[in-house]
Each structure stands twice: as C-alpha cells, then as structure tokens.
Amino acid sequence: LFFRIAPQIILLAIIGLIISMVLSALAIQWLLPWGFGVALLFGALVSATDPVAVVALLKEKSSRKRLETLIEGESLLNDGTAIVFFSIFYGFVLGTTTEVHALPVIGKFIWVVSTGLLIGAGIGWMVLWIIGKLINQPLIEISLSIGAAYLTFITAESIHASGVVALVALALLFSTIGRIRISPEVTHFLHQFWEMMAYVANTLIFLIVGIVIVLQINLGSPRLWLILAVLYVLLTLIRFISVLLLMPILGRIGIGITREKGIVLVWGGLRGAVSLSLALSIARDTAIPVDIRDQILFLAAGIVVLTIVINGSTMEWLLHLLKLDRLPPAKELSVQKAKESLSLQLNEFLRQKVRKPFFDKLETDSLGRLIEDPCKDGSCSLDRPPLQEDIDVAFMRRLLEIERSDYWRQFEEGCIGRKAAFKLSRSVEQALDNRPEIAPRPELDHIFTVPSCPGLLHHIPIIRKFIEEWLFSRLSLGYDIARGFIEAQEEMRRHIDKLCPNPEICRRVEEMIDLNCSQALDFTRYLGKKHGPLVKNLQIQSTRRLLLNHERYLVWKMQRDGVLEEAEAQHLINEIEDQMMRMRKWKGREDVV
To answer: Which of 429, 412, 534 is nearest to 473 (CA)?
Structure first.
C-alpha cells in the first residue's frame, strides 16, 4: 500500500513541505525581525509533521488504511526533507554559505537525498544478506539492525549526505525484503523492540526540551506568548494552503483523495519530536545570537504543544463531523457477518462446555443468554445501504487479504520458501491495485511457464552446467510457488461461506479460484511428467522442512508445559536448527535439461 500511495506521499513530503517552509518563513519574518536565512531555518524545522496521535486515533475509530498510510508516509519522508533543508539553511545562518540561490539549493538537495538513499540501500542489502544466513538468532539479528542504523547514519553524515534519508531507505528495505530475510520467529520481537526505542527517544526529547525551556527562557513575556498564538493560526492556515494547492494533483495520482480526507490531512499536521530536536540543536549553538536561539526554541516547543493539545484533542470530533469515524457501508456489512459467525461459534462452544462435569448444572438456554445478540437493538440495520459494487469489491479485497496472510503463515511454518513467499505476496498486492481481482494473475504466468533453451547450447559443457543450475532454480521456485498458491486458494475458499454477500459474486469467486488452481495444477503435473526426479527431490525437501519446523514447535511446547528444562530444550532446538541450516545449502539438482 505504501508504494501504491508513494506518488502522493512524495508530493506532500517534498513539494508540500517546500510550500509550507517558504510561507512559514514569510510569516515569522512578519512577526519577528529575523533575517530571511534564520526565517527559512525556522520554516524548515517547524514544517516537519509528526501525526502519531492522529494515526493512532484513525486506527482506533476508523478503518481508513489508505488515509493512515498517507498521513504516516508523509511524516516519514518529510522529516528527512525538513532536516535536509534545515542543514542547508543552517550553513547559511552560520556563515559557511554566503548566499542562498534556488539552483544550488536544489542541486544540493538532490545530491544529499540521492546519496543518502544509495547508502541506506547499500548497507541494508549487506546487513540483510548477513541476517539471511542466520536462523532464529534474535539477539544477533536485532543487534545487526541496530548496528545497521548507526552505520548508515554515520556513513551518510560523514560524506555530507542525509543520514535521515539514508535511514528511511534502510527502514523501507527492512520492511520489504527484510520480511523474508529476518527469521519469522524474530520478526515480531524486532518490531516491538524498535517501537519501544522510538517511544523512549520521543519521550526523552520532550523531557529534555521541557527542562531546557524552564532553565533558559523567560516565560513571562506577554509579547512572545501573543506571537506564539498568532503563529499557530498562521501555520494552520499555511498547512491548509499547501494541501489545497496540491489537491488537484493528489486527486489524480496514487489512489486519489476526497475533500473530507484533505481536511483531516490539514488538521492532522501535528508537529513533534523532529521539530523539537532541531530546535534543541539550535539552542545549544553559541554561534547564533542568544535571543534568536531562545525565541526559536520557545516557538517550536509552543507550536508542538499547541498542535498536540488543540489539533490532537479535537481530531475525534472532526472525524465524527466528517463521518469518517464510521466504517464504510461495505465494511460494516462484513463486520456484521463476522459478528453472526462469532455468535454461532460461541453457541457451539457453550454446547460442548455443558457436557463437562463442571458445567453440568447449567442449562443451554441460560448459557445462551450470556451471548450478546449480534443484531440487538437493530444494530444489523445499516444507516447507509452499500452499493452492490462496493460490497463485491470489499468481499474480494477481504479474500485477497486472507490469501496474503496465508502466504506469510505458510512461510513461518516452513511450507514455502523465502522467494516463493515474497513473489506470492507481491502478486496479491498487484491484484489489490485499483479494482481487486482474484483471477487471472498475469504476474504469475511466467512462473507457471517452463522455459526452453536452444538445443545446441546443451552440447557445450560449461553452458550446459549453467543452464542446469538456472533451470533447477527456476523450476524449484515455480513448484514452491504453485504449492503455496494452491493452498492459499483453498484457504480463501474456506472463508467464502462466512463472508459471502450474495450467491452471484460467490459463484464468480469460486470460478476464479478454480481457474487459479487449475493453472498451478497444470504446471505441477507437467513438472511431474517431464522432471519426475526433480519433483521427487523437491517433495522430499518440502517434507523435511515441514517436519523440522513442526519438531521445533513441539520442543517449544514441551518446554512451555514443563516437560523439558530450558537448557534441554535449547540443546534440541540447536540440533534442529543445524539441520535447517544444512537444508538451505542443499542442492538436489538432477539432470533437468
């Protein structure tokens, strides 16, 4: 989703930030007698958004994943953009840059950003390659991620590139390719670790800035408080202008945008840790006059507090006013079907419990009253009946999400390999683009096609060996993808009855699933007929991989149940993971040419 919305995110994070930065500089020059360089410096630091509270509220109150991603993605990239411009104008304020012209600034911006992206991508590839050689080593894998972050930032800054942009590139690589390189058992722990680190860093920045303001700044100046209030209003207006100017383009690229979502985008432009940390770096620099340092720190901190207190606290009211705090009608229908399914499952669960001696005095009818009726008080009636087309789209989108989740489940359980999981999940993402379609899957057509090579090349020993290696790898991946694809199609099929909005769309979906399964089965049958030894080896390898993963799970369960002590369980797990490591190096290549 991030990459589908990327054009809109980039537009807001670069062009939108430049508009906000220049207008903010003009606004602060109107309020205070600062030079244009200092004004641009302040404009850069105060234009970086940090809408953590808004995104959290959207996740809690709404189901607008695209809006969440747009707001969060803009914040991610405009932090880097703001810091790049801040660094450029900082040099001008300190006198290391004598003049500020548009072309040199643009040229430096391109250099700083592009070099940062290359450094982040390069170090990310190297570290993920190392992590990919490990199996279930949480301490090592997390330590490598920390080392990669520091190495990326220090390397980029040492050659005057953007360390923040480099870190963004590193993070994007970890969130995409990293998902198949990092051990599945470590992924959740790694995510939680970095969330905790971000929380600690944010907390420390707010704490330090609060202490510095109390110790250094005279808070008794009514004029400064008045300037802060006026500046807050002007910055809100500037945010509105920057989004309004870009709305015609935002509506035509990426996934588009509505007027209501544009309003949320304006009001959700909270400021946070980046603005505070940049202001703090100015406050510590004795080369800048002390009155300007104190004013920048006070105004930056004040804007952060006001946007959090005013914008953040009123966002729930705004979402309600714009009717964005409700689920879309098609999703409401899906939730109702889920409630009905839950009610049936809970009733079945109660019937089983009544048969047990500890519940034998209870009657089924009395227990049934403990289960809330999903349609109580008319909650099943929709305020806005959804269009049939919207219902069908939501139904197929939900099935595709189930398919994607199943691929990652198969990967975690060892049913499919890394490359297969990555390519299959990518195929779902492409199917979700625009109008979701379960079939056909053109991006998998070349996978399910057996490549052919000119017969003359088979007689050249060196080339023949290369062809054998390549063809073995190609067919192995295709077989792995076909197995995972068929299993995920059957998983989707099992959910059709629970989610089905009407018989016609269910019949169409069944036909599309049959088409997908038929394509994958034809490929596997062809492989079995033409490359029997290869298929046999692949089946042996897949079975061993499944058994090893299940054996490790059973050892973990025995440790959790107290059957094995930690040291004993770890000894067995080490033996199993050694076998997994040897399997990665396994070459079962037969004569496939």
So the answer is: 534
pTM (two decimals): 0.77
> What does the DSSP assignment read for 14-29?
IIIHHHHHHHHHHHHH
- Residue 97 backbone dihedrals phi, psi, to 5 degrees: -120, 125
Q: Beta-carbon neighbour count of residue 490 at 10 Å?
A: 12
The residue to which tokens 């209003």 are assigned:
233
> How far apart (Å, rounded) are the C-alpha atoms in residues 539 and 43?
61
DSSP 420-443: HHHHHHHHHHHHHSSS---S--GG
Per residue in 460-483, pLDDT (tens digit) is: 666 667 766 777 778 888 888 998
Contacts of 467 (CB under 8 A, 6+ apart): 453, 457, 458, 593
Q: With contact defined as beta carbons under 8 Å apart, do 71 and 265 qualify? A: yes
Q: Quick check: 86 and 278 in contact, CB under 8 A?
A: yes
Nearest to 351 by CA among 368, 338, 370: 368
How far apart are alpha carbons 161 and 109 in whole angstroms? 9
d(CA 266, CA 359): 56
Task: Give dist(CA 452, CA 455) in Å, integer.
Answer: 9
Contact 66, 5 (CB under 8 A): yes
The overall longest dimension of the chain from CA atoms, in Å, is 89
Residue 124: per-residue pLDDT: 94
